[in-house]
Amino acid sequence: MDTTNIRCAIDIGQKFIDYYYGLINNAKPLSPAYVTNNDTYKQAGHVASDICVNGLVLGTPEEFEKVLEKSRTWTNCPSDRVVRYVVESFNSQVLNSDYQFAASRELVDIHGKNDGVRMMLTLSVSGTVYYGVEKHARENTNYMVKKHFNDVFILVPNWEVIGRANMSSNKAAAGRRYIIVSHTHRAFDA
User: Fold this and answer.
1) Across-strand partners of 87?
2) Rounded CA gap, 100 and 182, in Å?
3) What 8-state DSSP symbol labels residue 114?
4) CA nearest 84: which of 143, 170, 165?
5) Parallel, antiparallel, or unpaired: how do β-strands 145-157 and 50-53 relate?
6) What tens digit of pLDDT does each residue of 168-178 get?
């Protein structure tokens, strides 16, 4: 495998983590991060994202958002407290260096299979989730409940974002260049 793809997989993994866990930690909608709500993939007939949380199969990213919202409230946290995911390690690997599903002919022609764009990736993330952290605290020392978590994602190129980046001089939002096809989440006692 080309070293460009390996380097890009690591970079993409880090940027995706920053983007995705930023959404979770700020209670923002997660649906833009999933293939389920991506017009390019929907029009090409891609199936909905596969989402499994602690063994529970969910149909949509919005259902996962409801699970997250419930986890924010089950600890009876005061309103000035939040849930914070802290990533401690990750591993990103190329599954397919020539992923073309739903890509326009133009994007396939622009991006070769060794330039770090047309990749399907697996991203494994582990860390700690703190429930009931003070909203503006810099450190996670004062919390109500602590659990470990592990997420495994299968990511594919977000052709809409990558296409816009190719059409203009502006770079695409780094974390949005890849979207989730499959997601398995597990939280367990620390």
Assistant:
1) 127
2) 17
3) T
4) 143
5) unpaired
6) 444 446 779 99
Whole-angstrom distance, CA of residue 101 vs CA of residue 84: 34
If we measure between CA atoms, which residue out of 154, 147, 115, 150 comes closest to residue 131?
Answer: 147
Amino acid, single-letter form, for residue 76: N
Length of the chain: 190
What is the average pLDDT across 61-89? 82
Task: Set out the domains of the chain in order of their start, with CATH numbers.
Answer: 3-189 (3.10.450.50)
Q: What is the pTM of this model?
A: 0.89
Q: d(Cα 126, Cα 66) in Å, to the nearest integer?
A: 21
Q: Is the dihedral of CA 17, 18, 24, 28 positive or negative?
A: negative
E-strand stretches of 29-170: 50-53, 56-58, 81-96, 120-134, 145-157
Alpha helices for 32-189 (secondary structure H): 39-43, 61-73, 105-110, 159-167
Q: Give CA–CA dist 177/175, Å, rounded.
A: 6
CA angle 177, 178, 181 (to 5 degrees): 155
